[in-house]
């Protein structure tokens, strides 16, 4: 995290500064460092609200999956998110104001469809079976949106055949250097 902190000082306005490390930490079930990264991103004025929404969705899902609890700041951010278009639909879906079917209906392209499937799979909570989540994650892959972070995360979970509920294997040097 020391390397990340240094890197973030030099380029806090670049989305990749926060997204790539968060993606690795979240998919691998590393809640505490992900929460530190999340807090740093939320304190940066240069980080766009749309990106903060995605990061908030990821940290809430990770907290639930690892039984670390809900991050109050993330819940508050999503609860008051007043973005426009697709982003407002994602926030409304998370808040339970619109259904998965309504979110999917509002999707304007395959990228939106990929996100709808992914966030529905991740938002199912403990009541969902792995098979239910897997079916939705496979739909993310079927969209072919390989450049989307949700595609990458879905692919990782499908390859592992699980969603880690605790820190999965220590991060390798290669993963750590990619995150920074």
* Distinct helical segment count: 11
Terminal CA distance: 9 Å
Taking the sheet with the most strands, its summary is: none
Percent of residues in beta strands?
under 5%
> How many domains, as an integer?
2
- Overall geometric form: globular
Radius of gyration: 15 Å
Instruction: Determine the fraction of residues in helical runs and give it as a percent range.
Output: 55-70%
Overall pLDDT metric: 88
Quick recap:
The protein is mainly α and about 180 residues long. About 70% of the residues lie in helices and about 0% in strands. Helix 2 packs antiparallel against helix 3 and helix 8 packs antiparallel against helix 9.
Q: What does this molecule look like?
A:
The chain has 180 residues and is mainly alpha-helical. It folds into 2 domains: 1-81; 85-162, no CATH class. It has 11 helices and no strands. The chain has helices at residues 2-10, 15-27, 31-42, 49-65, 72-80, 85-94, 100-106, 110-122, 130-142, 149-160, 173-179. It is globular.
């Amino acid at each position: 995290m020391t390397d990340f902190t240094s890197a973030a000082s030099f380029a806090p306005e670049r989305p990749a500064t926060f997204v790539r490390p968060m993606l690795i930490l979240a998919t691998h079930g590393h809640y505490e460092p992900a929460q530190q990264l999340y807090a740093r991103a939320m304190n940066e004025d240069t980080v766009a609200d749309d990106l903060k929404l995605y990061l908030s969705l990821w940290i809430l899902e990770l907290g639930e999956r690892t039984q670390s609890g809900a991050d109050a700041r993330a819940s508050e951010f999503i609860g008051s998110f007043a973005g426009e278009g697709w982003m407002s639909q994602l926030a409304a879906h998370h808040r339970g104001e619109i259904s998965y079917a309504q979110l999917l209906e509002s999707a304007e392209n395959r990228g939106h469809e990929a996100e709808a499937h992914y966030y529905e799979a991740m938002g199912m909570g403990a009541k969902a079976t792995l098979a239910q989540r897997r079916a939705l994650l496979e739909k993310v892959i079927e969209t072919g949106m390989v450049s989307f972070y949700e595609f990458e995360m879905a692919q990782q979970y499908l390859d592992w055949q699980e969603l880690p509920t605790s820190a999965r294997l220590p991060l390798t040097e290669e993963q750590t250097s990619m995150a920074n």
